[in-house]
């Protein structure tokens, strides 16, 4: 799993039906690192350091084997020091 | 999921039957970044910033568990600032 | 899917039975890029620019869910400009 | 599989139910390399050099096909020389 | 599939039961490249240039859908020139 920080919500009105209305969050691996988009399975807010699961496990973690996710937030990290950039 | 921009359509006449006649789009992660090819499950045009799902989720997102895709466009991003290069 | 160019055939006499006698092709993402090996599901010749699918989709694209491939050529690109290095 | 070293335990109180109470360990590929988080299927302590499996195999290795892991520790390496940084 | 060279055997006494007693080999993509660990499904010796399959195909190639491998050696390359570093 990757340690990432939540940046903001992503708005995508035109999306495949399988995504439903699940929130899409822009996350990044470290300050200045590349952005990706994750499905939120927990309820996070911008600034949270979170645990993201990828690969085929991201589908089930998002709620069902059919959910089209390759990156899902599965936990909020209690304490993460910024100087410990992942 | 990755944030990518649609560049153009890719023409591949000689292809495996499982791909059908689905449009193939050349996408790239950022200006100057490497190109990949994605299956369009939404209906995009060149210039659109889109959400691409990879891994095993790309198959189902393209329409069925048997579809041979490892990168499928599942949403169009409403607003994406170029300066926010993914 | 990745845009790659076919370089040559790879000879591997001692291989697992599941690979059968399917041709193995050395492919590379761009001139000077790293080499990988793909299963040919189309019928390519050296120099062709091809579309390669990875992840779990590579198995089915190679002919069956049990085929041990993680990179399968699923289409030949009609026209690809060398200056558009993928 | 990747050769990684265990750094410490990660605390995540707010997590998806599927993760249960399984320990989460921060691991890194080499001194100074990026950190990831793995599920411990063996019983490791900080400092151990371990074998981590990713991809879809990480789920089953963590105990069941439904476990949301993309990185699971499946073995402790008996002897690993630091100068052989993985 | 990746072209890798076998370096040596890896000893891991404390491992998950699903790995059985299958040999674990340290492999690397090129001289000086990073090391990974692969399951040997062929019978290789140090120095051999081999074909390694990853992703979900690595499980079946290692003998069964339940085998926890994400990198399995599926063929020995007959001739590989060192100057053709993969």
From TrEMBL, chains A, B, C, D, E:
Any one cellular-component term (Gene Ontology): bacterial microcompartment
Any Pfam family the entry gives: EutN_CcmL
InterPro entries per UniProt: CsoS4A, EutN_CcmL, EutN_CcmL_sf
Keywords: Bacterial microcompartment
Subcellular compartments: Bacterial microcompartment
The name this protein goes by in its record: Carboxysome peptide A
């Amino acid at each position: 799993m990757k340690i990432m920080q939540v940046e903001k919500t992503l708005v995508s009105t035109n999306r495949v039906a399988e995504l439903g209305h699940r929130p899409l969050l822009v996350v990044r691996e470290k300050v200045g690192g590349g952005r990706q988009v994750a499905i939120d399975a927990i309820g996070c807010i911008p600034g949270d350091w979170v645990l993201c699961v990828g690969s085929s496990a991201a589908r089930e973690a998002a709620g069902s084997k059919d959910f089209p996710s390759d990156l899902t937030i599965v936990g909020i990290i209690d304490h993460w020091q910024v100087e410990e950039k992942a």
